[in-house]
Amino acid sequence: MFDRIQNLALKEFIQITRNWLLLVFIILGPVMELVLLARATRQGTTHMATVVVDQDRSQTSRQIISAIDNTEELDVVAHLDSPDQADAWLERSQAVLAIVLPPNLEADLAAGSPEVQLIADGTNSTSSGSALNAAVGAINAFGIRRASAYAREWPTIDVRTQVRYNPTQDANHFTITAQLGFVIYQVALVVAVAGLTRERELGTLEQLLVTPTRRLELIVGKAIPALIIASVDFLLMYAIAVWGFQVPMRGPFVVLLALSLFFIVAEIGLGLTVSAISRTQQQAGLLIFVLALIDVSFSGYVMPVERMPTALYALAQLFPLQHYLAVIRSVMLKGAGLEAIWPQAAALVALSAGCISAAVLSLRGRLD
């Protein structure tokens, strides 16, 4: 009995190792997700990008900037000339916090309580709250040290905070927009991945190939139902998010809809590629499951892609979900137009064309 079990287990192991693609996904997918999750948990909300508008350019203002930059939570990444430039950094999600130091800060500090303005990107309530707390703490600590150095009471700095795009810091705005992207992602993949493997299992794929239908036409024909179903699902999810959960829609809907279609096409192309290289629907389902783990890890939901190591950051640019989540949050929460999100839009267009091309090539290589 033990010999039979041993032989059966050995046979199963050999069959698993023959499918090297599935084996790589099974091993590397969970490992990658664990590494990124552990990295995000360890770092927490640290080293968040911060921009400074120093209109005073005095020794006091430089000391305040140095105190903020020396915190573990904040990193000053740019010194801007005007508050208007800070708006662009926040809108493009290049900074979590903008600090505006007024002119005559040093002179006003000797005479009264000058105002320092903190402007936070509230699309992620956790990051914005931590950034504001860290900046206020650094400024207050600077005032205490200054008073101790001069051995007298030092005027306090009046810190005025402003949270952009999500004044109430409602966490639902961040999570619901992410879930909207995830649901569309799952629907497009699940519908597309069953297309070719179902035909192969039923034995009708070869019959389709002997017809005058070209492989590109076959891919497009399989993609159209998935595109329609995912598009309808997007409209339903969008309506629930906006009217059901009161998530704001501040940007142009046409831009969001157009880029959603490109994202759906990209995921359909990916699903058809998996379908083309899979022998059965079960195998395709396993591949999609493990691929989803990797995709979510690189989407920016577990860990912001800007804080990934350089190699992983470059690799994240190949995942459509990462660009789409940035588009949803920018358009819906920030009211961004195409001019602000054109890098993500260009990436989605290029990835949609690339994924459909990969599906055609995979089908051709599988059958030739």
Task: Please give a structural write-up.
The chain is an alpha/beta fold and 368 residues long. It has two domains: 46-164, abc type-2 transporter like domain (abc type-2 transporter like fold); 171-367, no CATH class. It is built from 14 helices and five strands. The chain has helices at residues 2-18, 20-43, 59-69, 83-91, 105-111, 125-150, 171-202, 205-209, 215-244, 253-277, 281-297, 310-316, 320-334, 342-367, and strands spanning 48-54, 74-80, 97-101, 115-121, 158-164. It has a five-stranded mixed sheet with strand order 2-1-3-4-5, sandwiched between helices. The radius of gyration is 26 Å and the shape is elongated. The two termini are 43 Å apart.
The counted number of beta strands is 5
Overall geometric form:
elongated
Element-by-element helix/strand order: HHEHEHEHEHEHHHHHHHH
Radius of gyration: 26 Å
Overall SS class: alpha/beta
Strand order of the largest sheet: 2-1-3-4-5
Strand content: 5-15%
The overall number of domains is: 2
| Head-to-tail CA distance between termini | 43 Å
Helix count from the secondary structure assignment: 14
The biggest beta sheet, please? 5 strands, mixed
- Give start-end ranges of low-pLDDT stretches: none
Q: Residue-averaged pLDDT, rounded?
A: 78
Oligomer: single chain
- State the helicity in percent bands: 55-70%
Brief descriptors of the model:
single chain; 368 residues; alpha/beta; abc type-2 transporter like fold; 2 domains; five-stranded mixed β-sheet; 14 helices; 68% helix
Task: Please summarize what this structure is.
With 368 residues, this protein is α/β, with parallel strands linked by helices. Helices cover 68% and strands 9% of the residues.
